[in-house]
From TrEMBL:
This protein's name: Adenylate kinase
Domain remark in the UniProt entry: Consists of three domains, a large central CORE domain and two small peripheral domains, NMPbind and LID, which undergo movements during catalysis. The LID domain closes over the site of phosphoryl transfer upon ATP binding. Assembling and dissambling the active center during each catalytic cycle provides an effective means to prevent ATP hydrolysis. Some bacteria have evolved a zinc-coordinating structure that stabilizes the LID domain.
Sample GO molecular function, one term: zinc ion binding
Chain residues that bind ATP: G10, A11, G12, K13, G14, T15, R127, T136, Y137, K199
Region described as LID: spans on this chain: 126-163
Protein role: Catalyzes the reversible transfer of the terminal phosphate group between ATP and AMP. Plays an important role in cellular energy homeostasis and in adenine nucleotide metabolism.
Pathways per UniProt: Purine metabolism; AMP biosynthesis via salvage pathway; AMP from ADP: step 1/1
Protein species of origin: Anaerocolumna jejuensis DSM 15929
Superkingdom of origin: Bacteria
Catalytic activity: AMP + ATP = 2 ADP
Segments forming domain Adenylate kinase active site lid: 127-162
GO CC terms of this entry: cytoplasm
PROSITE patterns assigned to the protein according to its UniProt record, in alphabetical order: ADENYLATE_KINASE
Record has Acyltransferase as a keyword: no
Length: 213
């Protein structure tokens, strides 16, 4: 079971990826985690990646692919894995396919968690954060006991810059420009599965299970 997760920032892709990984007892592989692990362990690939990151540069596609392929060759990936945050671009997707076919493997499903931009903007603009203690809330889903005041430390809670509609919309635009070609790519391969991410986390998860079973 080799799965790629696609979905906009704020669509709940990461949460679903974790639940799938738990359910099927396969590793949840995020590029951020791989980078951190390789840098921490001082591997050759990690050193190379750190070199780019220290200069504020994006880690090049080939290196990202090397890191991911190195990870999925490990023993715990024998039964499958779920890739979260990779591939992000067509060159990355092609490089992944090439690397997998070299070891006679292929991606089984690309699961796209679909949430309309307007819903994502609504979700994010309901978030509140305490800048003093770091606690996070949501005006509908996780309200504070006293409106506008952090439960933990009593400070005022705010809408972070990152969660403001204009910031979210900008991020979504970048996402769509990058990801639409990927959606087409996996659709042509016949492995794209779309799920409705507007439902509750649990209902969306049930839909994903139906697809994977
Ligand atoms: Zn607080």
């Amino acid at each position: 079971m080799k799965i790629i997760m696609l979905g906009a920032p704020g669509a709940g892709k990461g949460t679903q990826a974790k639940r799938i990984a738990e359910k099927f007892a396969i590793p949840h592989i995020s590029t951020g985690d791989i980078f951190r692990a390789n840098i921490k362990n001082g591997t050759e690939l990690g050193k190379k990646a750190k070199g780019y990151m220290d200069q504020g540069l994006l880690v090049p596609d080939e290196l990202v692919v090397d890191l991911v392929v190195d990870r999925i060759k490990q023993d715990d990936c024998e039964k499958g894995y779920i890739l979260d945050g990779f591939p992000r671009t067509i060159p990355q997707a092609e490089a992944l396919d090439a690397a997998l076919s070299a070891i006679s493997e292929k991606v089984d499903y690309a699961v796209n968690v679909e949430v309309p931009d307007s819903d994502i903007v609504d979700r994010m603009s309901g978030r509140r954060a305490c800048l003093n203690c770091g606690a996070t809330y949501h005006i509908v889903n996780i309200p504070t006991k006293v409106e506008g005041i952090c439960d933990v430390c009593g400070s005022e809670i705010v809408l972070r810059e990152d969660d403001k509609p204009e910031t979210v919309l900008k991020r979504l635009e970048v996402y769509h420009n990058q990801t639409q070609p990927l959606i087409d790519y996996y659709s042509k391969q016949g492995i794209l599965k779309e799920v409705d991410g507007r439902k509750t986390m649990s209902d969306t998860f049930e839909d994903i299970l139906k697809i994977l079973n």
